[in-house]
Amino acid sequence: MGLSLVQSRALLGLEATQVTVEVHLANGLPSFTLVGLAEVEVKEARERVRCAIQNSNLEFPTNRKITVNLAPADLPKDSGRLDLPIALGILAASGQIDAAQLAHYEFAGELSLSGELRPVRGALATALALHTAQVVTKLVLPPGSAEEAALVPGAQVYRARHLLDVVRQFVPAGTAQDPVALATSGLPDDGWARVSHTGVATPACIADLADVKGQAGPKRALEIAAAGGHSLLLVGPPGSGKSMLAQRFAGLLPAMSTDEALESAAIGSLSGRFSIAHWGQRPTCSPHHSASAVALVGGGSPPRPGEISLAHHGVLFLDEMPEFPRAALEALREPLETGTITISRAARRSEFPARFQLIGAMNPCPCGYMGSTTHACRCTPDQVQRYQSKLSGPLLDRIDLHVEVAALSSAELMQAQAGESTTVIRERCTAARQRALQRQGKTNLALQGQDIDRYVRLDDSALQFLNVAATRLGWSARSTHRALKVARTIADLASAQNTEIAHLAEAMQYRRALSKR
């Protein structure tokens, strides 16, 4: 009888829980049994592992009773990431590799029938979870996955291209005629290698804001939103430039820190949407308006991150916002306030970060031409009311800036000069955000409770103006606080120590409700 233990990880949200692959070989009727709450793709590993071992000219114990247990038994396991540890466990239990040497490593990888290793989802999330928990171990991963995991500082990551590349590292001392030694003797030397990465961000190819002619007001709103981390709603007729403005917003945001880049990349890796070429670039997610609430906030079994989490430290652009399902839009309310999303199901509960900047775009009415001087609006007041009410009051209350984007005439469009470039505006946004971080250690959007009173620094005249305006406009406490945060950002852009009445007045212009007919 033979028993071996191989360590791996299973992903549940952003948590990488340790999984011990226990392999037992015993005398009896030949069989291959896999237990431990394995999903279908894990159960199919039996055939992949069998073929991979045999096609690698290694010995598969076909005349033994093989039992593989994936512990802990109550933890769901999915994907093909456990193929490699199962294969190594069988080889160790049958004495073909040294089981004692496996104790210092953790393995993940999907096996092809020929023994080649294929990338797995969530490699970077696994390495980041180990780094956060201060677990010191050596990760063995396939090509592609190893380069992802190596982005985590201090990670010990080894890349293996083939099952035999891994086996060769754990062959017990023996003669040259050993079957495993013979099978691995002809392998190239580059199949097994320690992987490291400098973590240098690649410049993103983002369209320049100078391409948008005119629209000084919306551009100013984009600058304020980028400097303070605020959400923004663009309202205007078709063709006025709302989508062009939103698509260029990510270029105004300051460069990502290493921690922000790791968090964003880990979520992308968890969904299989991360590419090393996009390392250090702020994500921009633009789901279609037919997206469901689960697609936006996440869900499924096991829970997967949604678009709001994939846009973590980046931009979530919702074009044609009223066309989204009402349930999907209302699901954004809590994440906009807290920066996280908790997905609770009967069996599992997962929490994903979701600190994104929401950029919404919508028409003022169903036909889109209400208030236009060039087109007649065909909508009745009831239709306008129903259309605009698709965005509820509590959701609008959480959007800091409401901006009208007017359509330009052909003469204005052709004669308008190119505005400031994205690079120039980004420098101002970065400087303003740096002032906020030096003053309070967080962005203005993140100010809560007493921090608002402490850091906004309202002048006496500005305070009196705010009290009068908030009373007349019927603002809620949330609306008042968000206007104060926007005013503080405007003051930072102006390099002002205190928030003056001019800064507050400009901020109030961005809290206007949607115009009614």
CATH architecture identity of the largest domain: 3-Layer(aba) Sandwich
Q: What is the total number of structural domains?
A: 2
Helix content: 25-40%
Structural class of the helices, strands and pairings?
alpha/beta
What's the mean pLDDT score?
Answer: 88
| Rg (CA only) | 28 Å
Query: For this structure, what is the CATH class of the largest domain?
Result: Alpha Beta
Q: Got a strand count? A: 19
Low-pLDDT segments, ≥5 res: none
Separation, N- and C-terminal Cα atoms: 82 Å
Q: Name the strands of the widest sheet in spatial order.
A: 12-15-18-11-19
The CATH superfamily label of the largest domain reads P-loop containing nucleotide triphosphate hydrolases
- The percentage of residues in β strands lies in 15-25%
Number of helices: 22
Shape type: elongated
The major β-sheet equals: 5 strands, parallel
CATH topology of the largest domain: the name is Rossmann fold
